[in-house]
Amino acid sequence: MDAVATSSTPAWLDRHHAAADRLRAAWAGKRWLRLLGFGVLGLYFLFVLVWLFFAAGLPSSEKLLAYQPPLPSNIRGVDGQPVGTFARERRVELSYDEYPPMVIQAFISAEDKTFFSHGGIDYPGLVGAVGDFALKKATGGSRARGGSTITQQVAKALLQDDEYAVSRKIREAILAFRLENTLTKEQILELYLNQIFLGRNAYGVQAAARAYFDKDVTDLTLPEAAYLAILPKAPSNYDPLRQTQRALDRRNYVLREMVNNGFISQSDASAAGASPLGTIRLGSNAKFREVGGYFTEEVRRELLRKYGEDAKAGPNSVYAGGLWVRTSMNPLMQDAAAEALREGLATFDGGRGWRDTGLSIDTNGDWRGQLDRAALGTGFPDWRKAVVLDKGTISARIGFTDGSTGTLAAGNAIMPKRGGGGSAYSNLRDGMVIIVKQVAGDNYAIRSIPEVGGAFVAEEVRTGRVLAMQGGFDAIGASYNRATQAQRQPGSTFKPIVYYTALANGMTPATLIDDAPFCVWQGAGLGNKCFRNFDANYAGPKTLRWGVEQSRNLMTVRAASQTGMAKVTDTARRLGVGDYPNYLSIALGAGDTTVLKLTNAYAILANHGRAVIPTIIDLVQDRDGKVIFRTDNRCAIMEGRCNAPDWDGGAMPRPPSRSRQVLEPQAAFQMVHVMTGVIERGTATTLRDLGRPLFGKTGTTTGPTNVWFVGGTPDVVAGTYIGYDQPRSLGGAAQGGRIAAPIFKQWAQAAFKDVPPTPFVAPKGIRMVRIDRVTGRRVFGTFPVREDPKSAVIWEAFQPESEPRRTLRRAGEETELADAAAKAAPRRKAPPRPRDQAVKPAEPAKAQEDFLARQGGIY
Predict the structure, then answer these.
(1) Is 140 exposed, middle or buried (CB count within 10 Å of its CB: 0-12, 13-18, 19+)?
(2) How far apart are CA 87 and CA 70, in angstroms?
(3) pLDDT: which is higher, 779 or 366
(4) Adjacent-strand bridge partners of 326
(5) Residue 816 known to be catalytic
(6) pLDDT above 60: residue 817
(7) DSSP run (H or E) holding 460
(8) 48: phi then psi, degrees, rounded to nearest 5
(9) Is 801 a catalytic residue?
(10) Which residue has the higher pLDDT, 247 or 155?
(11) A single Pfam family, by name (predicted)?
(12) pLDDT at 180 over 60
């Protein structure tokens, strides 16, 4: 039987081969098919090339996952309360879950109702936008309409590119695809709600809720959420004040879209559509009151030095890093410092006439915006910046930054213009920016920014933390911080450095120094240099204490000469006041320094000679709460013992001291104790009724060009000065006790209002001895009258073995002890003595001295 031939090839393979044969035949025989294939292949390669070209430089998936929007730095006071922000973009970052569903629904309805279903691109919208773009390009029309999804808007924000070109749209589309493949829809929407610009310098919905309604997003009503949802396209087109009806129409459109999308009912939309916009005025939504313009500006400068300005400088930059900064500012003391210094400057400058601000704007345009941007600070809270809109014969209409107007009567601007030239009113002109104060209703009176400058600093004694810093009248438009930048002659406030050096080198508060003419030969070319007192009089030999209390120049230069100027300038260097040559004029404060440096020197004296460094920042945290800087880093060097999780059985760990000893503690205390007399009986008696232990020193420089006061309590030291920025005479009657000390007093009344008095504590070894305040001699049997600041007997501080001693009879002289005993005991007749018997000199009172040493002195 013949064999039957069969095929071993599967049928499907035969069909595949047959199809391939037909395709090869068609490819070989039909030219149009070959052209179509090459065209498709070419388009594919073109697409790849375009993708690679435009995708170059776009953020990678890893960068998209790690992306964090720029956040402002938040500044807090010593009590943790917000006092300011550093922001170019006002933004508060929230998580997706923190946004109410109503807010999310409003934005989706307004911007991208298919957001949760599309893949990043709205193709119909994109085609329409491209067609509109081509038409507008061909006809030279206006800008084409957009066709971006929420994802594309996020991509645009990430690109930070607003170029009006197809290339930018292509890059947006590529990045949108990458976003959709990398992030979830919720993550993309979170970025959008935190990133989008909504006007009023508000970036993100939370910041906008504060800017327009002074609310958090969780407190927004339906119409408020719908209004915010219309702003992403063009916030200025829907300004609630200038474009009210347009904003209402667009808001109601969003409400209708929410109904169409099933998010709200028709009745809810109707009720919301009938309500007004309800927005607040621009600038009236401060969540917290900005405090300490000069202080926060100094903080900003220090942060810029540490971390840089923007995101290019690093992840912790000032304007993008979202830092949380705890400063040492005490808001109560800072407010009191600003108020006291402004009052002092205004009082001194008040009788010198009105000063033109030198600023003007065009009132025919947007004068409100121009006025708001004018760099001029008003200082006092009840002073306002205004512009002259229309000046008449008897009154002028003035406008304010909020758009309101008022009246300035000629009778309320009668003060003469400084330098002559009529009254203030006669010098007003339309468009001039002025300062006014409300007097009644919409009537205002003109005010003038003081020409004289000054500064104030308060510092914590134990740590050096700066509690308050005011560098002038107002930081707006005048960021020059006189507290840290102005180099001024300290005058007599330098004298405690001289007298401390004298006390550390053998003198005592009871040492007699001659208040008499003192001249120094300076060489053949210069001749004699003769010093003089402020009142040009002399008092003869007086105690060192009296010389400090009465601020006697001749006693100061004589003490410096006897101690040695090299030692005085060395003390100044150790205190950080300055590096000066060894000239006697330096002893009278002829060398330049700053208020901050001199105040810190007084803090070191009050701290028993232990050095402290003035600081304004306590700690800095990044946006995640991690501490990246801490001024007090003592725990960091304790190898974990400071924050141990449990007791290790050893002694309680003691953090090392933050300071080192730079002065003799006993001499430092003596100097502080002597300066309490300046308050009690000296040049600063105006402070005596503050009713608490105080020390300090006034200062007046030659001219006088500067007036000073520096002093304080055992816990807080403050310093202030007043003087023109270009030094010139303040007037013959200007003195530190009359001008600077009252500024300190006004500050102290507010700063120490609820603070219990603290006594000055003497360091170990100091001996408090009763002396005659005038002669410096030791007193027995009488005690000081504490209620009388001019008591004849006072307690004086002496270093061991330096206090005045009782002396025994020497060469026929009676001792104070013998005199007292003779008066107390009945008179006795001395026994006869042979005429040739010599009088034996008394032995040194060695036993008595040993007894005094064992007892620690007589108190």
Answers:
(1) exposed
(2) 9
(3) 779
(4) 76, 619
(5) no
(6) no
(7) strand 453-460
(8) -65, -45
(9) no
(10) 247
(11) Transpeptidase
(12) yes
Which among 358, 384, 351 has a CA at the least distance from the CA of 450? 351
Helix intervals (H) in 196-273: 205-213, 222-229, 244-260, 266-273
Helix %, strand %, coil % of the chain (to 5): 40, 15, 45
Residues ≥6 apart with Cβ < 8 Å to 706: 488, 489, 490, 491, 699, 700, 721, 722, 723, 727, 730
Q: What is the DSSP code string of 501-527?
A: HHHTTT--TT-EEEES-EEEE--TTT-
The pLDDT value given to residue 130:
60
Instruction: List, for residues 312-356, the tens digit of each pLDDT value.
Output: 898 999 999 999 999 999 999 999 999 999 999 999 998 888 999
- From 352, 105, 70, select the one nearest 201 (Cα to Cα): 70
Residues 6 or more apart whose Cβ sits within 8 Å of residue 239: 199, 247
Structure tokens at 3: 């064999």
Which residue of the set 492, 551, 585, 802 is catalytic? 492
Catalytic, out of 73, 93, 109, 111 = 111
Which SS3 state, helix, strand or coil, does residue 755 take?
coil
Can you tell me the distance from the alpha carbon of 699 to that of 705, in angstroms, rounded to the nearest whole number? 11
Q: Which of 157-161, 468-472, 646-650 has the lowest mean pLDDT?
A: 157-161
Tokens 């069969």 found at: 6
CA dist 647 and 196 (Å) reads 51
Which residue is associated with the tokens 């002259």?
388
Task: Say whether 705 sits in a helix, a strand or coil.
Answer: coil
Between CA 822 and CA 589 the distance in angstroms is 50
State how beta strands 518-521 and 617-621 pair: unpaired
Q: Are 232 and 196 in contact (CB under 8 A)?
A: yes
Tokens of 732: 């013959």
Q: Are strands 395-400 and 405-409 parallel, antiparallel or unpaired?
A: antiparallel
